Write the structure tokens for this entry.
Amino acid sequence: MRHQSLLRLTCITVLGALISLTAAMAAVVKQVRHSDTQERTRLVLDLDGPVEHSLIKLTNPERIAVQLHGARNAAGQLRLENDSRLYEASLDDRDSTVNLILQTRAAANIKTLLVPPNATQGYRLVVDVMGQGAAQTAPLNKPTIVEATAPAVKPPQVVVSPTPKPMPELRAMPKRKVVIAIDAGHGGKDPGAIGPAGTYEKDVVLSIARRLAATLAKEPELKPVLIRSDDTYLPLRGRIARAQAFNADMFISIHADAVDRDGPNGASVYTLSNKGASSEYAKLLAARENKAGGVDTLGLIDKADPLAPVLLDMVQNQSIESGNDLAVHMLTQMQKVVRLHKRQVQRAGFAVLKSPQIPSILIETGFISNPEEERRLLTADHQSRLAISIRNGIMSYLAANPPQGTLFASR
């Protein structure tokens, strides 16, 4: 009898330890980030570990639940304002499962992707909501879609108001500054282009970069960071790595153009293109700039991930789209202050713009091969005018696209 009591007590103790261990191992949803673009609505759940997930259809009213099994919620509740595809979204935490419940405004496709950790971020579950005409990408862990019925699956109880109301936040997240990475091209052993009077491109663009950083530092919502602050050589991969280490929201690479004749002048703005260059000159320029050191964009994610190309395409297409938008704002503001060589955004495969998570542009501030423009690029007045015009382009873009969770977004 005493032996049975001891055995029962031992079993209870072991069971309690297992329950405690399971709770400790549960993945935690730390925060949820939201963006709404022309192509998709995206929710990114930041996790402290991997998680299994599935999709379930709910009825009365029709909703989709993204279920994170063996997880718990530490992010509080969601608040969506005027999302173009979602009427409402909420987090429900019960029975060791976190349910992300989505009520769409119209028929939509839901795509999920569990993103493995990298040097700067942990696990993330990316949930994309797109119109039914949007192309689909296979998820990392293909979720199971189940038609929920009352006997089999007890749907989370969600009260839906007839009119959208702001959902309360249980924990206010601290607001941060928008980080602007400023990359002065070339440097050290790489002088870049050399003007007729012997001016090095690396020196001119570093001076402009410093003036831009000083101008941006006056804005309380912004934090400018210099990829290189002195005459240092950095390979292209190192420049991208530094921008990612700074958790940059934007990457501005500053250069000065050169050709084999002295006629061309004016500034141009370039973005990354995966579909070929916008002109033969853009193609040649990208080839010349890329000689500074190649970049393997897949190496920035995780080559062991069998779906790394899918992930790269997913995040880089988003950054290319944002980079194009940034370039349009930049040209609009720069033409008010300086002469433009090209009034349209130029596109080519610039390696330095291949950070898959950061909207990036390359600005050719003028033609250092033009004697008159070379002299102008050396003057403090013209450098300041360039810096101000670039700042105005950045501010214009951010006013239309404030990054979530930043001081700029709460203006």
Remarks:
- The radius of gyration is 26 Å.
- The chain has two domains: 27-147, 178-410.
